[in-house]
Fold these 4 entries.
Entry 1:
Amino acid sequence: MSHIDTIIVGGGQAGLATSYYLTRQGRDHIVLEQAAQAGNAWRNDRWDSFTLVTPNWATRLPGAEYQGSHPHGFMPRDQLVTYFEDYVERFDLPVHYGERVTSVEPKPGSRGYLVRMNGDVLEADNVVMATGLFQRPKQPSFSADLSPDILQLHSGQYRNPGMLPPGAVLVVGSAQSGCQIAEELYQSGRRVYLCVGSAGRAPRRYRGKDLYEWVHLSGFLNRTPDKLPSPRARFAGNPHLSGRDGGHSLNLHQFARDGVVLLGRVQGGQDGALRLAPDLKQNLAKADEFEAQILKLVDRYVEQSGLDAPQETLPQLRDGYAADEITQLNLKSAGITSIIWAMGYAFDFSLVKLPAFDGAGFPVQQRGVTDYPGLYFVGLPWLHGQKSGLLIGVGEQVKHVVSHISDNA
């Protein structure tokens, strides 16, 4: 049985950043990645026109912080994939592709772990879980009861409007992916129905800066879980906005003005019909309130910091409130031939055979360090602050974990 000091499970941004720091220290380690290539989530689970919603300057994997000529632009999918490929090659990171880990369990009778994969077993003093939050696409069980004539895709399978059969499209979910996909579809000439959830809205720019720069400067991204209204808020959908075409705001009221049919949440369905909750107005109000609170945060920061940022009043659209509350949707009558389930993903850490999780299945840890010696988690939001799962903050959280590994060697 091969022994390795540290095994990193997952070769996404967090796993690669961990490997970067361990490589700099000359520590024995490997990265086990089940995909065949670097940047798998960005390469294979994003649509063709996808761009980051975070500005290029916020792309900060350690040792490869963005140095290009467009810091305020938004990186498209293919460029981001190349960024990850180059990262592995540039720092000669020991990534092993096509290696699917099936379990991580404590080593009987001594410190350390057994990592099982592809029929083999490796022994490690430390295991760093870097598998992220996106293990299982969310799709309701009742989707299996819908007509087989309806093409059903998760947002991770959608690529472009041309891959869908002629007809109207129902997009279920109004966080970042759902809204961006819905916008692309209706701008391509499709009739679009959009089931609206409780995700917030944020303007792309306000008072002379990109909104992301404001939340970074103000410390909003440094919030810790104790600042949230409830533990469940850790898993809320990201506010809708876009980085496409240089970056722009997304607004459900504008969608309604442009002809998108807004609906409440899906509650169930069978054959050719869906049941919908009468909560559209409530969810629109949540999006409006989220934006109002974000603007207040920026205004307060500008005032307290004494910055020269002229006052700005954003358009107050209300078109969505005029929409009828539809509680039954006949797919055939509406001409819907495709459904895109943009409901996000569920996380699943069941391969870790230890009681290291809370009631929601999230790791119990302090800045990624668990109570089990040598077991760590990286790359998730709210391991310390909100940005610990983002390109702007993953390196900071990973550096803390690697320091802990070194200090306890």
Entry 2:
Amino acid sequence: MQPPTSAIVGLSKSLFRSPGHIVLWISLSLQAPMFAQSSSAEKESWPQFRGNPALTGVAKSTLPSQLKVQWTFEAGEAIESSAAISDGTVYVGSQAGELLAIDLRSGRLRWKYKASEAIGESSPCVSNGIVYIGDLSGVFHAVDVQTGKALWTFKTASEIKSSPVVVGDRVLIGSYDESLYCLMARTGTEVWRFRINGPVHCTVGVAGDIAYISGCDEVFRAIRISDGKEVFQVSSEAYTGASPALQGTHAYFGTFSNEVLGVSLEKKQVVWRYENKQRQFPFYSSAALAQGRVILGGRDKQVHCLDAISGKAIWTFATQAKVDSSAAVSGSRVYIGSNDGRFYVLDIEKGAKLWEFEAGAPLSASPAIGEGRVVIGSQDGRLYCFG
């Protein structure tokens, strides 16, 4: 809490009684902005899909043990895009073809930006005063976070469902034209493009100078960001819609062949495969990685928690519909939506349900956790904020 103005005035008069006090006053005055900047820098954001370039789905921010709805926002059309949270603002795309900037505390609209067409699963990425997103006409947009005005656009040859990732002065984005693009983040100038043998649906996972693609062409690839050259590839033997989550020397992702794969980046091979033998359904949800566990939803209507080393099941949690939403983790809790219209909070240790919220419409988007709040959109166009 800041002191009232009268108290500051009184303090200033007392400090100015001697030259020494003047020096002290100047010292305190110089320190105050530094404290403010430090506080601002410590805000716990969720600036992109899955929270970070490694796509681990783990939040820096903590949440209350008991969640309450803080606000809802009516976007007008379905929200498949997962939100980004940065500097007190929520950014999310909608099927109405709009990128929305919403105040995190109040739920009030700050601005809306009209894309070329509907925004599907492409989720915003916020970096250095710019928010990036792709739309279903294949246009990639860079928008000023303050004004909501376009800074530049880049046209690909097909729809964009991938989410952007910023690495240094570059931004990476995949397209259904079967290419991964590397663009200059400030200008949109193409640096390179890498072509695969199918749509680039996933968001790339990044570790160091390497971008990893779990491709729709049944190949997991490592591509050098500096020059766009392939470093290695591993056959996944399956069409893949999920994005690769990276931790240490391993990558993890689910496939449409009803498996979850653990890939060694050192050995350049699949080291384990998991499948639910009782229910053979695809995995579309991207994995969260926390506490040595791989956590993801399945189209078998369950949330799965696997051991990251062995790939063995630790627990499963049953919902009433497929789970395409990707889990977010904060502390010892897992947050995930389901197409049964419920938002679940689960205990990471045993998978026990701690809380649920009935949204009444499918939740295929993934939760974003930042600055003490969790945000998720629904298929009926409502954006929910809990805290």
Entry 3:
Amino acid sequence: MRRIAKLCLVSGFFVASPFLFTPIISHAEKSETLQLLGLFGDIFDRIRTDYVEEVKDSDLVESAINGMLTSLDPHSAYMNEKSFKEMQVQTKGEFGGLGIEVTMENGLVRVITPIDDTPAFKAGVKAGDYVSYINDTQVMGLTLSEAVEKMRGPVDSKVKLTILREDMTEPLELTITRAVIKIKSARVRAEGNDIAYIRLTQFTEQTTDLMREEFEKVKKEMPNMRGVVLDLRNNPGGLLEQSVSVSDAFLKQGEVVSTRERSPEKTKRFNAKEGNELVPENVPVVVLINNGSASASEIVSGALQDHKRAVILGTKSFGKGSVQTVIPIPEHGAIKLTTARYYTPSGNSIQNKGITPDIEVQPAKIEPIKGSDKTRSEAQLRRRLENLQDKKDKEKKANGEKLEKSNPESSNQPENGTKENEAKENGTKDGKNGNGTNGESLLKKVDAESAEDFQLQRAFDLIRGIDVYNKVKSEK
């Protein structure tokens, strides 16, 4: 019996898996299969002899194989030797191209997500965009592999994409310069001095180790960590084993995900290892997802949601609940075949459904309401009662200032002091008590983009709210 070594993958990336055995075929089925293969041979021969132009046999066979696979589902496909090698390089976290994860839908290339800090991301490509033309070549009629091949090219060369976007009435043309895509799949930073922000862009071979390494560094800067925000937005997925190990970093024990093939007895279960958690169990976690969060991202968010280890915030995820297997074909590349569905610990399949967030927060932009500073309050009313405590505080402050002026050690300071000096001492811009840390305001520690990120700010607010609630609860 023939054995074929195979590799499992999630959203375009592979991991080691058991062997695939050729099924036993009955005599009747074998006879019918031979007849159908004879039909294929007749059509193949007719094309070779009668088609208006000469076609290479290899091109015909590759197209036939790809046609079989792409007719099954959007994720099954044939990869020639070049494409297979590029996919293997991609899983290691560095490859050439535009920096977008794509699938084929309705005859067009659909963007699952642009990868952070890549040419496509910087050019404004968004999750959900459809590519209708590549360098004025119509995408309709091309296979996914052919379309991807056209988008790839030499570093520093340009490619023009015609984009169809739901909220736009006219097509959008973007000219993007190709580059070597180096992906740092995990980034961790401190938000203020109390929240750890973890951003995962993909699940490559390096993701878990990189996340753990960077988190330990940030953790040392925050002895009183109030919570963790795990950002999986626009993360298209990756290695199945990495989604399990990332989940393991947050879970004490229990199932992370199960995969089920056609045969019920081929169900596999992946569990968290006790004592392997990176984030302490008492530290609250908020996971951010959106419609660009697919596959391995949905495994992580589904596991943490089912185990009630995290609050899921954002919008519904992509809904890719299938596992692909890369089967190498010696000297001919490989085929990528959908071989299983995966299920969350509670037994739910998210195929075509996605992960529904616990708290739905749509992307938004915060703007001050005009005239809001003109609203009236008690303090603006005539003949209002004075706040006696406020009066005492002012007296104490006045006495403190007199004492400071009479102190010889402060003789090198300006006589009256300034708001600017107060600001430098307090680590704030206006001298008021704020979120400044180590002489910097909070906004200086947050990327400019993050400062305007409504969903991310709501995640930070939620962490702080949970922390306050837990403290009040413990004091009762």
Entry 4:
Amino acid sequence: MVRANERGVTPQSVDFSAWYNELVVKAELADHGPVRGTMVIRPYGYRIWELLQGELDRRIKATGHENAYFPIFIPMGHLQREAEHIEGFAPELAVVTHAGGHELDEPLVVRPTSETVIGEMFSRWIHSYRDLPVLLNQWANVVRWELRPRLFLRTTEFLWQEGHTAHATEEEAVAETMTAAGFYEEVARDIAAIPVILGDKTPSERFAGAERTVSLEALVRDGRALQAGTSHYLGTNFAKAFDITFTNQAGTLEYAQTTSWGMSTRMIGAVIMTHGDDKGLILPPRLAPYEVVIVPVGRETESGPVLDAARAIAQSLREAGVRTTVDDRSQLSAGWRFNEWELRGAPIRLEIGPRDLAAGAVTLAERLGGDKVQVPIDHVVSELPLRLEAFQAALLARATAFRDEHTVVTDTFEELVRAVASGFALALACGSEACENAVKAATTATPRCIPLDGAPASGPCVVCGAPSGYGTRVLFARAY
């Protein structure tokens, strides 16, 4: 555990980046691996990932997908079959040239994503329209050589899930793309308490080799965007590269329509930066390793009736489905333990000492703040699940309000520049890559997406004055 003189973190207002980097380590979510850019996920952080993974996996399976696993090594020639794909990933590839004491005949790429190896297998497995659709998902690690790594946000190796599907028609594949984006949106909103804006990437921002990329964009507390998940309609690009064909009902040979979609451990970074404050993490209950932490206080808490009562309450809460732990480290002061669990973001803390026990109550403190309250011990099991639901809802409302307060509709380039300094800008854009580059050069902001629920809008591009090209405003922001 962190030591007393290491508990504090730099305030967000002083240096948000330092706040984040310190918090990830001090809250024992992750640490830096021995190879630059790699990450060791510690048990507390991995439990958050397991909870997120469980929620997402349940939704994936409920929509008819099955889990599978594919190799981490991909022949270089496979990536080169889809020209746009290899060009998009070339700077990030880790390549194996020697193995078993010998130089390989063909270099192997350590998996940056799996469209190519799965395309190869689809070509072996799909022959008839009766073989479609194929709905697969894998939980895996991937490697992308990051120049500016940051724990959870951009690491050389990270964990994710990647869905890969094949369909007979464009309509089915596009519907699949939106299904995946829909359950990402649901997990972000209902589990991570993060409101996201769902939209199409502009052509220059699409996934390499995709016909369409649907992105989920979150706004974190320093006013930057964070991409929380993507879903790609690949059309027949990979099917043509890997000869994924099938005989249709009329007996004619067609290329399959494919999709891919993914969400990663980056979501943990999104949770930290969306909800955290100067005291540390604030975890949504549905992702908290411990929703309730019970801290026995007072003298002689190594044993005796106070500790017995704390353990009995914890067991009752666990039986009610509430993840609960008892912090019975009596060698540490109660205040030290209170501060540590604030740092680590536990939603609810229960304090119990001799006076509480004599009164038949516990003292309850919520991580979002407010006065401590007394709760009768015999009301704890019935009351705390309701408080946890309210806490979850309050976090989502707080994050939504922050996003809305930092989203500005802009009509001029000057307004856009001011808006992206602290949040989202909605602007009319012609769609040219030159104009997108001009915005990036002036502000470092990029077009995050074209919101799917954007109101109809037309007029001149804020950069060049040409007619807008999308029928609605484009979302711009600086991003991680």
